[in-house]
Amino acid sequence: MYVGRFIVIGPDIGAYRVSSRSFPNRQVVDREGTLTVAPTADAEPTDNPYVSYNCLRIAGDTAVVGNGSHVDPITEKIERGYPARDALVEALLAMDYEKDSYNTPRIAGTVGERSYIGTVRSDALIVKEVTEPTLVATYESDTPESYPLNTKAATEAAKAVYDADLEHAVCAAAVARTESGFETAIENGN
Predict the structure, then answer these.
(1) Per CATH, which fold does 6-187 belong to?
(2) What average pLDDT does this structure show over 114-123?
């Protein structure tokens, strides 16, 4: 099944996977602690604004995970003192779903003292607190649902979502909340 891009958010873990039929030549790169989806060296040039973006950022005691440019305003709101839930709601509502030919939902989540997952689709805005690993995807599974991510380590989480039995894996990123802060991981399928 093709669900497109998806995130899994749990109380102390967050993971994101790029799944793509149209732009498979992408990777996650670490840019001074910000994880960014970017074209690989062999990717064809494109001006599509949905191909490259920050997918994981840390804002103090909260990590933000998402499938597009809305990760930045969510992070910035948290840095300015907004509660994570409010930052998700405001940024998702303001940016709305992607205005592409599929009306692709924006998906995002936060990992912190309280963790949240959210999506904005053409017909709904959903943001909810999570107490167990929860998935939301851009297609098919576009309402948050329980997901069996049974790890507390970022490296294992990135590998698990990359290897999930869902079509067209491209790359993945993950974050885990630890006693000393956050650890991140990248899985580019190499």
Answers:
(1) Glutamine Phosphoribosylpyrophosphate, subunit 1, domain 1 (3.60.20)
(2) 98
Half-sphere exposure of 125 (CA within 13 A, CB side): 12
CB 62 within 8 A of CB 181: no
Query: With contact defined as beta carbons under 8 Å apart, do 50 and 67 qualify?
Result: no
Alpha carbon distance 109, 115 (integer Å)? 7
- Domain definitions of the chain by residue range: 6-187
What is the rounded CA–CA span in Å between residue 108 and residue 144? 11
> In percent, how much of the chain has pLDDT > 70?
100
Torsion of CA 63, 67, 69, 72, to 10 degrees: 0
For 50-90, write each residue's pLDDT tens digit.
889 999 999 999 999 999 999 999 999 999 999 999 999 99
Q: Residues 130, 9: contact at Cβ < 8 Å?
A: yes
Mean local confidence (pLDDT), 164-189: 96
